[in-house]
Design brief:
Radius of gyration: 17 Å
Strand order of the largest sheet: 2-1-4
Order of helices and strands: HHEEHHEEHEHH
Number of helices: 7
Distance between the termini: 36 Å
Helix content: 40-55%
Length: 208
């Protein structure tokens, strides 16, 4: 089954009771709600560990670009010092100097991303989609808008993430985002989630 834009015209006689976009959203809600229950205890432990090892809140909310280039607030467990400049990590002169004592571990293990299950539940994000750009990543935002990728709900993981993650330059990431835009399906989402799990377990392709 392929996910198509909700504006696709169909006659009432042939319109499915549960359209592709509704199916994807339902899948997101079920998986995010289940994930929040399953990971409730680990998330509580991480939150306490963040507070005990560095000054500042356990959760960091960053301004991100969502569907149709609308801004939303995305939560992550804080892995950087509270006074870190709001720029992509790779643009910091010495990113490791800004990490909290457990920040490197949180990033390598992707535990810092778990609060985004909430963003999926409320509809700001999807399980699978292009990773949400920072509000000031003008080059990435412009390329995605030019290619129509901005119409997608951003994801906890994505096709670009399982094909390079932090190692890919922006133009290559957008090419993979475009590939997902045109080929997205339930099976592709399941494959992406499976490949993501493997990369997380091996902490592969995480450079920041």
């Amino acid at each position: 089954m392929t996910f198509r834009d909700s504006s696709d015209e169909q006659s009432d006689a042939t319109r499915p009771l549960l359209g592709p976009n509704a199916l994807k959203r339902s899948f997101d809600i079920v998986m995010a709600a289940g994930g929040l229950v399953v990971f409730a205890a680990p998330m509580a432990v991480v939150a306490v560990a963040v507070r005990l090892t560095s000054k500042g809140p356990a959760i960091y909310w960053s301004d991100r670009v969502g569907r149709d280039n609308k801004l939303f607030r995305m939560p992550k467990f804080r892995s950087m010092r509270s006074d870190t400049p709001p720029v992509p990590t790779h643009l910091l002169a010495d990113s490791s100097a800004w990490l909290t004592p457990i920040g490197g571990f949180l990033r390598k293990s992707s535990l810092d991303e778990l609060p985004q299950l909430w963003s999926i539940l409320v509809g700001d994000m999807s399980l699978v989609g292009p990773r949400p750009a920072l509000f000031n990543q003008d080059d990435l935002i412009a390329l995605r808008t030019e290619q129509g990728v901005h119409r997608l709900r951003p994801g906890l993981t994505g096709w670009a993430q399982v094909n390079g993650r932090d190692e890919l330059p922006i133009p290559d990431k957008v090419k993979l985002d475009v590939e997902y835009l045109h080929k997205q399906s339930l099976m592709m989402d399941l494959k992406t989630i499976w490949l993501t799990a493997g990369k997380v377990l091996r902490a592969k392709d995480v450079s920041h």
